[in-house]
Each structure stands twice: as C-alpha cells, then as structure tokens.
Amino acid sequence: MSQYIIHPIVCGLNATDQGVMTYLRGYGRAIHIPIYVFYLEGGPAPVLIDTGLADFMLPEGLEAEVGLRAEYFEDGLARLGVKPEEIGAVIHTHLHNDHCENDGLCVNAKVYAQRTEIEFMRDPHPLDHRYDPDYLEGCDLVALDGPAEVLPGLRVLPTPGHTPGGQSVVVDTKNAGRVLITGFCCNEANFPKSGPAVCPGVHTDAIAAWESANLVKRMADSGEIDLIVPAHALWPGRQGQIG
Q: For position 27, which CATH number holds?
C-alpha cells in the first residue's frame, strides 16, 4: 500500500467572515482563509487534491501576518520539483472555482469527482455562483458514485451538504497515520474538542452539511482517522509537509 507525504501549497488567501465557515456562529469576526492545493508524494504518479485559484492578489504584509506563503499553482509545484503535466491524478473535494481553476494545466491527469458534483457543476443552481464548467473543459473526468479507493492508500467518502457532491479524502501517510482532508469548506473552529462539529457556514443543505462534519469528527474521535485537515484551516505550521 502506498504511503504518502502531503505537501500543502497555498494558492491564495481570501478575506472573509468566520460565519462563512461556521453556520450561525462567529459572525462579525474578520478572518483570512488559505486556498490550498495538496500535492501527494509517494504514489506511482504525482497526485493533487484540488488545484486552487489561477490568480490572486494579496495586500502587502498579509503573508507575514498569517504566517503562510502564497504561491501561484505552477510555482508551488516547481518548488516541489513537479510540473503540471506530470500530475497523474487530481482528486476534487468539490468543484467550487477556488478548488479547480488550474485543472486545465494538468493535461495528463485523470480528474476524480463525485458524479453528483459533476452534474451540479454542469447545471448549477443560480444561488451558487462558484461553479464554472469551463474549468473542467477537456479534462479526463472520472465520475465516482459513492465511496471509492482511487489509488492504493487513497480513498474518498461522500461528505455532501456544503455542495451536493462533496467528498473528503483519506490519505495513508508515512508518519502521520490516516489523514482526512475535508470535502467541505471549514476551518479549525468547525471541530471543537468537545461536543458536536459545527455545520459549515456555506451549504446547499444544512442538515447534510452538519451530518458530514459530524461524520468526520466521529471518525477522528473513534480513531478511524488520525488527523483532520480542514479545507481552509489557518494553523501555524500548516504549510509544512504532513506525514
């Protein structure tokens, strides 16, 4: 079984409100959230979880303030010794634009997403402006229907609610055990040490989103997974490799 090292790449930092992460909680507290691409080293071919933003602008001093370095997609991969055309697989947590804008650069990759998410992207509800089917134009799409082992040591499980077809990714790592990268937008505040998880603040189905967050928390509490990596966590040191 493959065991991976996870390398986060920060493709942008967005200013928002904590309430966007935590439903009915934290409103009025300004935060910055990183837009992550996760490069997985250790498999038969380079793998990405999401591909991030294609372009962004940062206020001067912001990187130092939050303790993260933002990089354009190709620059972040180059730092790790990888070119976009060398990527063998892209696994999407979901298909909002900030998770898939660079798919077109990964010309040799199979792109994995839940069928429900792909269908919604192609005909999104007007309420959700974050979808643009052009980002997946020409990609070698693989539609998944439920839980799946995409590659050895790398599996997905549906965690809908934030979007109709969101999926979380469980990665077997060399040293950090089983690491789950959430398929819904959240940060560390969604997973308090005691009590239930907090529903993501943006969702198409609040009940499903709550259930998905609490499924992930139960997996961590029971030891089924060893670490939760929230999709937009701003933790000190989170840019360092995991596993």
A: 3.60.15.10
Sheet holding 89-91, edge to edge: 5-17, 30-41, 47-49, 89-91, 110-114, 140-144
In a domain, 234, yes or no: no
Is there a domain that residue 237 lies in?
A: no
- Residues of the domain holding 152: 5-229
- Rounded Cα gap, residues 213 and 231, in angstroms: 12
Instruction: Quickly list DSSP for 187-213.
Output: -GGGS-SSSPPPPBSS-S-HHHHHHHH
Provide DSSP, 63-110: HHHHT--B--HHHHHHHTT--GGG--EEE-S--SGGGTTTGGG-TT-E
Q: Would 239 be classed as within a structural domain?
A: no
Q: Structure tokens of 95?
A: 């298909």
Q: What is the pTM of this model?
A: 0.96
Rounded to an integer, what distance in angstroms lies between the CA atom of residue 204 and that of residue 215?
Answer: 18
Q: How many domains does the chain have?
A: 1
Residue 160 has pLDDT above 90, yes or no: yes
- Euclidean distance between CA atoms 237 and 54, whole angstroms: 24
Give Rg (Cα) of the chain. Answer: 16
Torsion-angle region of 223 (φ positive above 0: left; ψ -120 to 50: alpha; else: beta): left
Q: Tens digits of per-residue pLDDT, 59-96?
A: 889 898 888 999 999 999 999 999 999 999 999 999 99
The Cα–Cα gap between 153 and 201 comes to 31
Distance spanning both ends of the chain, measured CA to CA: 15
Query: How far apart (Å, rounded) are the C-alpha atoms in residues 86 and 122?
Result: 27
